[in-house]
Amino acid sequence: MVGSRTASGRKRAVAAAGLAAVLAAVSAGCGIGRTDEGAGRIGVVAGTTDRIFSLDPAAAYDNGSLVAETQIYSYLLNFAPGSDTVEPDAAEKCEFTAPAVYSCTLKAGLTFANGHPLTAKSVKFSMDRMLGINDPNGPASLLANLDKTDVVNDRTVAFTLKVANDQTFPSLLATQVGPIVDEAVFPADKIMPDEDVVAAKGYSGPYTIASYDKNKLVEYQAFPGYRGILGTPKTQRVAAKYYATTDNMKLDLQNGALDVGYRSFSPTDVESLRGAKNLTVHEGPGGELRYIVFNLKTMPGSTPEQKLAIRRAVSTVIDREALAQNVYKQTYIPAYSFVPEGIPGATTPIADIYGTAADPKKAAEVLADAGVTGPVELNLQYNPDHYGPSSSEEYAAIKAQLEGSGLFRVNLQSTEWVTYQKERAQDSYPLYQFGWFPDFPDADNYVSPFFGPNNFLQSHFEDPGVNARLIAESTQPDKQKRLEQIGELQTFIAQNFLPIVPLLSGKQVAVSDADVQGVTLDSSFKFRYTTLSK
Question: Quick one: signal sequence residues (predicted)?
Answer without folding.
Answer: 1-28
